[in-house]
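Structure ticket #2291
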Amino acid sequence: MQIVHFKGKVLPYDPAVLHIDVKDLPSLNWTDGQTGDSMTITTKIDASVVDIEFVVKNFDEKDIPALMMKAWDLARAAVDLWCLKAGWGLGVVIDSIVKPDGTSGTLLSKNESLGALVTALDGSTPGINNYDACYRLLVKEPPLFMALNDLIVSITLPHVATVNCARAIEGLRVLMAPAATDRKHAWPILQGNLNIDREYREYVTDISTGPRHGDRTFTPGTVVTETVKRSWIIMNRFLEYRKRGNQALPLAEFPLMTK
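Resolution: structure written out below.
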């Protein structure tokens, strides 16, 4: 057997002021639904420092994302119970790993392939500081900032990705359509201005229906990945639309996205 530790902190992290202890929690036996691997997991929080220990049969680097998600779930559950009793609002971050050979490393929630989909921030438009222009859009429209934040959280916390992505795109619909426009007539406005068809958009908005109504049925990772990718593309196109003075995007630059 091999031992892997995922470590992190309760936020805000200041042991001199905030001293969270959650000890003597029972060890859990868990089987990964995708790999079928069984393991024993023990959660400890000492002076706001989180330590999730996994005892696994065979450690493989490719398993780190799944184990990290499970570690975050268990840490969050322990802290949420503490918060329920205390009436406090605290966060949790899992930011490092100690592997069976004793080596350690920093953990980051990232999907760098998404960055290649973003054109709204590049410097290709003469005379325009694109980062500055997009920043001004965000601070001018708080709902746009919140929609963007939903997308960033979707890669930080994969469990909420489908709900967050759908909420982000729903938010863009509200921002684009004239006030009091109903959903039925608002979607074609967004789709037409951004050159995306209904099926492409519905892939994002419909997959969240179950989770938004309390159905926590497992969503395959491939579906989550595609949902986030499409949401990134739609967000980028919305920023391009706003940056260009709310003009429909030209098909020559932004081909129709289908299915």
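Closing remark: The chain has a mean pLDDT of 90.
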